[in-house]
Structure formats: structure tokens, C-alpha cells
């Protein structure tokens, strides 16, 4: 995978290049270098810091999207206020990672972006023999196949979009309910129970005291 890293912090830039040696990582230290790189190369994804000198990352990203560029962009920043995250996503970011972050999380988010891209073409997510059809909300595993309710589908969609990633109960509740909608305190547990009743207990992992995850490896 060919990645463009736009980051002015030398320690982070050098660290990411070293840690992500499995990919070809081009490091641009400001928006101007990023623009030059894009004119010369085609990148699979862009890792973009917000706090860049001269032209900040949000401004650069807004112009990048207005120019019609659809390359996936993950914003990486220490700005954790909700308004900053909303600003980045509204400007055209595909995902948002807060510093400091684990390389494994960044890699997982990159994989998730490309799975979503593939899903838009195929209308399904398939992992280890489990298939979630996003067109008709059907979940299939082996000989079992059931259509899910909208909230059960939302849980499986977000778990399968990032297998191995742990979602807390509150994070999943945010996916199930709209702004201002009253949240049922045990809704997540109820829907997870119903999914397991249909497909078995191993379809969703419980990480005690933390949350839920879709297993990223097939059980032996």
C-alpha cells in the first residue's frame, strides 16, 4: 500500500515511516509538499495531521475534496474536542485517529476503510466465512442465514467493519440511536443476545469490562 503522510512533527513522521515499513510511506512535512507529492504519485490513502504550518490540515483537506480527489483520508491529531472531530469529518475525512495512537489501531482503520470501499461495490462484508449483506440486512454463517433488525444490523455492521477492534457499550449505543433519541439502557445487550441466539455465542466476542468485538481470526 502506498501512503502519503502529511505531518510536521519529525518524531511522529520518522516513527510512522519506521513502524509502517510494510507500506511505501511518503512523508510530506506541510501542505505544499503534500500537493507536490499528489501531482507526482497516486496514493492509496492519506494520513493527515491538522496542525500543519502555513496551511492547516482542514483547509488543505477541504480544497483537496473540492478538487474532486477521492483518496481515503485519515485525520491524525491531538485535538480531541468533538467540534474538531466533526470539522475534520465534514471537511471530507474518512476516519479520525487521536494522538497518541497504536500503530495496530491505525492499520486496522486503514483496513476498515478499504473494506468499506469494497463493500460499496459488492454490497457485503465477508470475514472468515461470515457474510453481512448491507443491501438486505441478511447475516449468514455456514448454513445459517437470518435477516437482522435495523439495530442488530447496525451492531454487526460496525463490529465487522473493524474486526478485532473493541467497541464499548456507549460507542455501540451511539450507532443505534439518533441525536436526542432516548436510549434503552440494555438495548445493546438485548440485540447481542438475539444475534448469538441465532448464530451461536462465538459470533460476537465479549471483552469483560470493556465491550464487544467481532473476532478477527477464525476459531480453531
UniProtKB/TrEMBL annotation:
Regions recorded as binding DNA: 122-216
InterPro entries: CheY-like_superfamily, OmpR/PhoB-type_DNA-bd, Sig_transdc_resp-reg_receiver, WalR-like, WH-like_DNA-bd_sf
Pfam families: Response_reg, Trans_reg_C
UniProtKB keywords: DNA-binding, Phosphoprotein, Transcription, Transcription regulation
Superkingdom assignment: Bacteria
Start and end residues of each Response regulatory domain: 2-114
Residues recorded as bearing 4-aspartylphosphate in the entry: 49
Occurrences of domain OmpR/PhoB-type (ranges): 122-216
Keyword flag Transcription regulation: yes
Coiled-coil stretches: none
Name of the molecule in the record: Response regulator
Amino acid at each position: 500500500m502506498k501512503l502519503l503522510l502529511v505531518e510536521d512533527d519529525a518524531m511522529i513522521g520518522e516513527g510512522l515511516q519506521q513502524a509502517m515499513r510494510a507500506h511505501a510511506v511518503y512523508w510530506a512535512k506541510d501542505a505544499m509538499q503534500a500537493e507536490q507529492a499528489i501531482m507526482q504519485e497516486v496514493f492509496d490513502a492519506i494520513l493527515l495531521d491538522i496542525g500543519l504550518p502555513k496551511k492547516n490540515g482542514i483547509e488543505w483537506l477541504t480544497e483537496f475534496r473540492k478538487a474532486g480527489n477521492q483518496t481515503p483520508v485519515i485525520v491524525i491529531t491531538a485535538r480531541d474536542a468533538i467540534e474538531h472531530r466533526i470539522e475534520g469529518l465534514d471537511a471530507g475525512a474518512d476516519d479520525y485517529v487521536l494522538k497518541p495512537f497504536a500503530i495496530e489501531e491505525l492499520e486496522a482503520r486503514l483496513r476498515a476503510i478499504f473494506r468499506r470501499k469494497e463493500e460499496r461495490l459488492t454490497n457485503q462484508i465477508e470475514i472468515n466465512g461470515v457474510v453481512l449483506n448491507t443491501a438486505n440486512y441478511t447475516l449468514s454463517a455456514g448454513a445459517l442465514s437470518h435477516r437482522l433488525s435495523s439495530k442488530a444490523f447496525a451492531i454487526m455492521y460496525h463490529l465487522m467493519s473493524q474486526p478485532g477492534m473493541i467497541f464499548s457499550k456507549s460507542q455501540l449505543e451511539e450507532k443505534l440511536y439518533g441525536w436526542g433519541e432516548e436510549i434503552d439502557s440494555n438495548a445493546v445487550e438485548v440485540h447481542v443476545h438475539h444475534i448469538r441466539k441465532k448464530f451461536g455465542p462465538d459470533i460476537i466476542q465479549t471483552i469483560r469490562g470493556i465491550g464487544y468485538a467481532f473476532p478477527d481470526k477464525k476459531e480453531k
